[in-house]
Design brief:
By secondary structure, this protein is mainly α. It is built from nine helices and ten strands. The strands form four sheets. The chain has a three-stranded antiparallel beta sheet, with no helix packed on it. The protein has a three-stranded antiparallel beta sheet with strand order 5-6-7, with no helix packed on it.
Length: 359
């Protein structure tokens, strides 16, 4: 029996059990409120000013993170003042702040928010806080620093890698030979190897950390992927050679007189220049969407147990969740590779040597 047919049979069995359990209490007239999984899923994939680990309400356990605001002066305090619930109001130097949908607003002592079409109109101070996403990003940086120092230490003792260097060396060689060399070319690839290796390892470590229980969804945060895309945008265009820019402004070259090309260039040149933005934008969306989708699917499968309100769905729900989770482990490395490979490809197009016609 194929995997697809097996899933269909399991779903039919679960439906029958669920149908039977539902009708056991059919004589009751009280209808229970249906479970809404959206807040649970959004809480998991969104950023926060504290690192929630487990529990709900006053029984929740988490790590308080530093809140750094600029509101007519620097305001630094612990996220513990904001609490774990949006009803709490933090007082700092005579000013009051409240969290609404993970954003901090200025308010009064009563925590009043002036709402308009579901959104507060209160002043929003500049927020430079160490949020959960930022904290995990710093943790990944520390992990990579420890790995790098340990690898360098092993090479000082011997040219033969030992310890963690045995794991890191094949990755560095792979990025150098299969990504940088193949996409940038043998003339200038070495200049970009350190950045590409760091990029690959940083994304990979963050993807793996994001799969741990209670961890932040860093690579599924659009702001984080946007910053990585901006780095690629700057490196590509600052490295661009004359041929790269000539291809932008004069893509047809000397194949025809300029007077004949001007009508074509009215459309073609803006499209070429638009490609400068669309390439890193595609990088940003690809990483964000793939990592966020994986988390949402896993959370949705687990939420099926509470939506259907029957234990019969548990084996199917947990089984499929485990299957997607294993896929996410593979996707964690795959997305790091794709982002790094495309970055190298864009750099290679910018530093490409001019092609000479041979007669």
């Amino acid at each position: 029996m194929s995997f697809k047919k097996l899933l269909i049979v399991l779903h039919l069995i679960v439906f029958c059990f669920g149908f039977a359990e539902t009708h056991e209490g059919s004589t009751e007239t009280v209808k229970e409120e249906k479970y809404n999984p959206v807040p649970f899923i959004m809480h998991h994939i969104s950023d926060a000013h504290n690192w929630h680990l487990w529990g709900e309400g006053h029984n929740s356990v988490g790590i308080s993170l530093p809140v750094i605001l600029w509101d007519n002066g620097l305001k630094v305090f612990s996220s513990e003042k904001l609490g774990h619930e949006e009803e709490n109001v933090a007082e700092v130097d005579g000013k009051f702040y409240k969290v609404f949908h993970n954003k901090i607003y200025s308010t009064d002592a009563n925590g009043t928010l002036d709402m308009h079409e579901g959104h507060p109109t209160n002043d929003v101070p500049l927020d430079f806080s160490i949020t959960k996403v930022v904290a995990q990003m710093l943790l990944a940086a520390v992990i990579l620093l420890i790995i790098g120092l340990a690898s360098a230490s092993s090479y000082k003792k011997s040219q033969v890698p030992s310890g963690v260097a045995k794991f890191i060396e094949p990755i560095v060689v792979f990025v150098r030979d299969e990504i940088a060399l193949q996409n940038i070319g043998s003339v200038r690839y070495q200049k970009y190897v350190p950045y590409l290796v760091t990029l690959f390892l940083f994304i990979w470590v963050l993807n793996i950390l994001g799969l741990l229980p209670g961890a932040a969804n860093t690579t599924g945060n659009i702001a984080f992927t946007m910053v990585l895309a901006v780095f690629t945008l700057l490196i590509v265009n600052l490295s661009g050679r004359k041929t790269y820019w000539m291809h932008m402004f004069d893509p047809l070259g000397s194949n025809m007189p300029f007077a004949g090309k001007i009508l074509v260039y009215i459309i073609l040149v803006p499209v070429e220049l638009l490609g400068i933005i669309t390439k890193p934008f595609a990088l940003m969306i690809r990483l964000f969407a793939n990592m966020t989708a994986g988390h949402i699917i896993i959370m949705s499968l687990i939420a099926l147990i509470f939506i259907m309100q029957t234990y019969a769905i548990t084996p199917v729900s947990l089984g499929l969740s485990l299957f997607i989770y294993i896929l996410e482990v593979l996707v964690a490395a795959l997305q790091a590779y794709i982002f790094t490979m495309l970055t190298a490809l864009f750099i290679g197009s910018a530093v490409e040597e001019p092609h000479h016609d041979h007669h």
